[in-house]
Design brief:
alpha+beta; 4-stranded antiparallel beta sheet; 3-stranded antiparallel beta sheet; 12 helices; 16 strands; elongated
Length: about 450
Amino acid sequence: MKPKIQKQKISHFFTNEYAKKYVKYVCEERAIPSIIDGFKPSYRKSLHAALSFMKKGISVSGIEIVGETYKRSAYHHGNSSLEDVVIKHGADYLTNSSPLVISGSGGDLRNNDASAIRYLKFILSDNASLYKHDLQLLEHNYDGDKQIEPKFYLPLIPLVLASRGSGTAVAYAFANNMSYSLKSIAETSLISLENLGRKKQIELPKMKPYVDGYDGRFEYVGEDKWKSFSEYSIKGNKVTILGLPVDQTYDKFEKNLSTLLDKGKILNFTNEGTKGVIKYVVNFNATDLTRLKKNNCIPLEKLLKLTSVSAKNTYTFIDENQNVLTDIVDVYGVVNYFVRYRLTRYNDRKKFLLADIKKRISEKSDLSRFIKFVIDKKLVIQNRPIKEIKKFLTDNKITHNVLTVSVTKLTKEEYEKLLKEIKMLEKEHSTIKSTTITNMYKKDLKELIKSL
């Protein structure tokens, strides 16, 4: 039987099939991160696998994480791209919220090349806990009937600002060219939360960039762009460079020096650095160096690429409803959007906690009443048909689950212990019920700030 061929105008195809389906697929599945947890789907899938089987402090091979991602998260794309994702989960130079720690050569700011994943071991980092908030509230994706990774995690702060990265989809692009310190993001989020409902707004502070492997200073130059610097000194005709700007790898820097040498702009250069310590010595013609030192050495810095400015950011995200979000213009817009959404999820947390405590009180109340009936000899359970015991429980509105309790628990001490536990739970229930969701969120943010 021949396949049925559907005729349609090219304009109709691009407007409907291509634009609505393919473009949405690329944005959601490959290129654009969530504003809520900062992940593209492949990163979320691999983290879901890692959190599901890895134990704190115990290392596993990168190949194991790749395999578990296929198994637990229904990953459907190439093996090499997944290996790259797993390695980037441990790349501290790219993100300040890396959930994994790499044992082996995983690359760094100055040499991005990592070893093949089969040679690398991974453990969960302390940052993995950033993604473990409100796990009971997560909505999961499904592969058929199988539950796989969540649609997004629920961190307390917008971790998308803790990472440097980019992505391109049809008609959309994302780029965040500076990573901010976790503490700075958390402090700004707290002020954003306090501003909600306030007539006189507190100005959000300038967030502090942090890039692992860069020890120099940052200078804000506007439009969410930051300038980074090399540390250098000049003695005679020699320039000694002891640090590089953020975007310079050893390879890029040395290629520029080699080009300058070929063009006769410098006499020679040597790399006297050791592992993790930068030291380049560049020799100049005296006349050339005198000219380059004018205007506060700006010509020299430009020639040797001793400063750099991060590119302008493009804030395109996937929102909590899986729609493309394009109207955020700066980091503060990211923080404000995130905080407003995250606060609403405290309503869900509050409802969950109150229902859970109520359930535990009910269970302990049933058990305490059961034990009381037994120790007061109002219910005799020895040498008595189970049917009669169950009828007694039903008549007294006690669940039959209490029958699983050990005989050693049928004591006055256990009864009194349960009464104390019930009283504590009732107090906890009252406290949570009277606490506003804003104060709940504030408390969590303050604890996070204290821990960073």
